[in-house]
Design goal:
- With 419 residues, this protein is an alpha/beta fold.
- It folds into two domains: 2-59 and 320-417, Aspartate Aminotransferase, domain 1 (Alpha-Beta Complex); 61-318, Aspartate Aminotransferase, domain 2 (3-Layer(aba) Sandwich), CATH 3.40.640.
- Helices cover 38% and strands 16% of the residues.
- It has helices at residues 2-11, 49-52, 61-73, 85-97, 111-128, 149-154, 178-188, 212-225, 246-249, 277-281, 302-318, 320-339, 372-381, 403-417; strands at residues 28-32, 35-38, 43-46, 104-108, 136-140, 171-174, 192-197, 201-202, 208-209, 229-232, 256-259, 271-275, 346-352, 355-360, 384-385, 392-395.
- α3 (61-73) runs antiparallel to α11 and α7 runs parallel beside α8.
- The longest helix is centred in the C-terminal third of the chain and has 20 residues, at 320-339.
- The radius of gyration is 21 Å and the shape is globular.
């Protein structure tokens, strides 16, 4: 496998990677369940669900079978001017499972594009209502919603998007505090186009967690002012917070819901933006220019939709949200047992559903900490793939993770605290 690494060094450009510093990458030759097989023979636990996507486990036979069957039946067809059973059935099922009355599904490719669609819907809907001055979006401090230009504009530019700042549109960010949100909404007044947030857990911000009460207050505040609430559940959706959707856990209904990652159980790239019927109807006109001009070659990809349907069925049959909640509880308890209650080595031990995180104590270098390579290497030494967010150590494993594996993940996380 040495040849693989040499070829990679010559031709690959990895995401979120400084190639001037990072020159060695894990060679992965196989995956099954929550385990990854490396080219040196090691088998490690996928403690982060391969960037938060693998939901049930790698290579789940029901998902593989759904993929195979759909590929043999209908591999791909454009969704502009065409339709097919897998997409229609998935849209129906998502409408049943989504919080509130989200009756319309617009398919896309990944989380960032799902957010782009939501922002376009919100902005263009105001134009159709005769309020084109509503161009400013509200978002949370530390928010991350993807890497396309709209998603970058509502994300926090530091540290990821500073080079692109001159090209980003205006947005206003507030802390996850209701008073600050209400104040910003009132100050923006009729310039506000919508409020976007990652409900309950802000992933790239360092697994920052806010309360159900804040989420409920945000829904009340936006509803009172007629402002669309956009819930970015790309990471939190499909059971990660202990409920199928974080919005369901808080018993709120957004106007727009963005989903991806776990939609197909992490097996294929597929995303969706769900919208209310009220928003959809604002685009109906005899004027073709009122249409939402957005689309992708692989919109509503038949194989992706078929796998997503199989994944939804697994969620129901295996009660994936409850399983993930149990996994999170086990990891959190094992960390406390290992480090002790209130350990001086860590701060902010926190958990929502199957997501467990804490921050290292010491000099805070932020996302670009020089400790990153050593932290990842130490986790691998304990047989677990982790990818800390700066000095935030977190785990978010698949639903197939056993109690024994939870203990091993917690042991690895505790070892990082001791470095």
């Amino acid at each position: 496998m040495r040849d693989l690494h040499e070829r990679d060094r010559r031709h690959s450009w990895h995401p979120y990677t400084q190639h001037g510093v990072e020159t060695a990458f894990l060679g992965v030759t196989g995956a099954k369940g929550n385990k990854l097989t490396l080219d040196d023979g090691r088998v490690v636990i996928d403690g982060i669900s391969s960037w938060w996507a693998t939901l049930h486990g790698h290579g789940h036979p029901k998902l593989v079978e759904a993929m195979r069957h759909q590929a043999e039946t209908l591999d791909h067809v454009l969704f502009a001017g065409c339709t097919h059973e897998s997409a229609v059935q998935l849209a129906e099922e998502l409408s049943k499972e989504a919080p509130g009355e989200l009756t319309r599904t617009f398919f896309s490719d990944d989380g960032s594009t799902a957010v782009e669609v939501a922002l376009k819907i919100a902005l263009q809907s105001w134009m159709h209502r005769g309020q084109p001055q509503r161009k400013v979006f509200l978002a949370l401090d530390g928010g991350y919603h993807g890497d396309t230009f709209g998603a970058m504009s509502v994300g926090d530019p530091d540290p990821f998007f500073l080079p692109f700042a001159p090209l980003l549109f205006e947005s206003v960010r507030v802390p996850a505090e209701l008073e600050a949100l209400e104040s910003a909404l009132d100050e923006l007044g009729d310039r506000c186009a919508g409020f976007i947030l990652e409900p309950l857990v802000q992933g790239a911000a360092g697994m920052k967690m806010h309360s159900i009460e804040f989420l409920q207050g945000a829904r009340r505040a936006t509803a009172q002012r007629g402002i669309p609430l956009i819930a970015d559940e790309v990471m939190t959706g499909f059971g990660r917070t202990g409920s199928l959707f974080a919005c369901r856990k808080a018993d709120i209904a957004p106007d727009l819901l963005c989903i991806a990652k776990g939609l197909t159980g992490g097996m294929l790239p597929l995303a969706a933006t769900l919208a209310t019927e009220e928003l959809f109807e604002l685009f109906l006109s005899e004027n073709r220019g009122y249409a939402l001009f957005h689309g992708h070659t692989f919109t509503a990809h038949p194989i992706g939709c078929a796998v997503a349907l199989a994944s939804l069925e697994l969620n129901r049959a295996e009660d994936t949200p409850t399983r993930l909640e149990h996994i999170g509880q086990k990891i959190e308890a094992a960390i406390i047992d290992d480090l002790g209650e209130g350990s001086p080595l860590i701060r902010g031990l926190r958990r929502t559903g199957g997501i467990v995180a804490f921050d290292l104590v010491g000099e805070d270098e932020g996302y670009f900490t020089s400790k990153a390579p050593a932290l990842r290497a130490e986790a691998l030494r304990h047989g677990v793939l982790l990818r800390p967010l700066g000095e935030t150590i977190y785990a978010l494993p698949p639903a197939c993770t056993s109690d024994e594996d939870c203990a091993q993940i917690a042991e690895a996380m505790a070892a990082l605290a001791r470095l």
